[in-house]
Amino acid sequence: MDVSPYTPELALEVRDLRMRYGSRDVLTGVTFSAHRGEVLALLGPNGAGKTTTIEILEGLRARSAGEVSVLGCDPARGDEAWRARIGVVLQSWRDHRFWRVRELLTYSARFYAPFATAKVARPWEVDELLEVVGLSESAQAKIITLSGGQRRRLDVALGIVGRPEIVFFDEPTAGFDPHARRDFHDLIHRLADFDNTTILLTTHDLDEAEKIADRILVLDEGRIVADGSADQLARQLTNSAEVRWSADGQRHVHAVREGDPAEFVRDLLIRNPNVTGLEVRRASLEDTYMALVHRVESRDPRPGSGKPRESDGQKIEEQK
Amino acid sequence: MTTTTAPDIRWTAVRAGFSRGWIETRQSFTEVANLIGHVAPAAAYVAVLVMLRGRTVPDTDFALGRMVLPSLLSMSIIFGGVSGPTTALVADREDGTLLRAKITPHGMLGYVVGKIVMFALSTLLAFIPIIVLGSLLIDNLVLDVRAGLLLALVLVAGMVSTVPIGIALGCMMKSTVQAMLVPLACALLIYPSGIFYPLSALPTWPQWVGQAFPLYWVGLGARSAMLPSEMVVAEVGQSWRTVEMCAVLGLWAALGLLLAPILLRRVAQRQSGSALAEVRQRYLSKGY
Questions:
Q1: Chain B residue with Cα closest to A79
Q2: What is the pTM of this model?
Q3: Which of A142, A203, B50, B288 has the most CB atoms in a 10 Å sphere around its CB?
Q4: How far, in Å, CA of B171 to CA of B154, rounded?
Q5: So what's the pLDDT on residue A165?
């Protein structure tokens, strides 16, 4: 990590980003930023607005309101020189099916050569890049014959062939086997650590976000509900705990929504001397995230039914 | 900082576009699925020429095949110039090729250059079987320098006046199914195009419709290149009207070159990952 006392240069800055389709609000004020060389994971259940956010940053979608700056430039007005400095890897590509792997990579690489600078040699040397993404053996293969995982590797290679300063990945490891996933994580670290590349990726997999990201942003119903490292996230999101006990032959459960459960427990023990089998369980980050995903998935899918949420974190029903 | 200037950067993209055109032309001959696109029309042309062998234009001793050959050439120009780009553009939009071009610096420039090179090359290559077979099957076919030069002019004017229109039409079509309407419309225009019956033998209104579209003029140009001068009597106004041909084709070229970049920019603006996902979803649920 950067330990210099100076604020590292921002690669990405988003302030109060809003997006509305017709009468439906998809993003309701998203604010975050990323330093150069930082790996950011945008985590959230399906429909939280991850793809919309990343497409606005990629300059592929016009926003409704808010300020966005990617490498010091508004993506809505990004010119070709700006394009040359960013990399885009989408969820699904089916393009150039009859081309050969090396052929397409060489073709794409050509466009970046004029954008080389004294600091950044562009493009990536094609054979070296094939090696890096693990496609050397398929270099002469026709793209249509690649397996799903190989195709994703090629998409990643095409996304970084211009040695971008920032790369956007939308659900990069969907369909990867564990081995390919490991390779991808190694590649992300290599890009961030050696080339100081800033990386923003979306995922709905908490485990993956914890593994590769320096910082995780949790997006829910169009806004950021938590922002920080996995540890910080656990503290921000999981301020609830469950207290269970038995008394007079009955089992009781109490949810402590906020703050320290110690106070409730002290009070309980003083009031009721018959308490046995006392359990205090703090929700893990995983529990909290699963509850969030579950709430979203079981919600009425009517369009525009996104109701305003309670403060932050989830609710646990109190029962007696 | 870089010292590369803007024109250099564009030139790089144009050169990449040439390589793209070459790669895709080669693919169109090595992929079985694409090869059919070349073989099927060629086979149809052979069939026509074989059937017409030994027959003459009624009341003359002029070989019917010799009369029809320029028509076949002009059809391959129009189909290569209009339907080709239309269907290619729709397919490339739906599979993400266009989006890939958009996220590459000057990628759209490379893409368009690539398409133009590819359609010019494939149309030129489509000429070969027609001319080779024509000279084998048709007696006293004249292919001199004048015919060659005029044919080259017709080919260039035909491509310039049709490829941009084809691209513009491709931008307007919403799906591959809609794009299939374009070759159909081209086929309908064959009737008032004068390439199979002389236009002067048709009622007045189809004559006007025919003369409004490039097919008639490309056909007229091809006939002026390959038919003996006395055949001019069958044409409207008993003239090859080369100047008018250049004017009408020039107008179509201007219209296409005006529309294509605007529509292409609009289409490119709408490209995004979620737009692609929607198309994918449509295919999964409806099958087209």
A1: B105
A2: 0.82
A3: A203
A4: 26
A5: 95
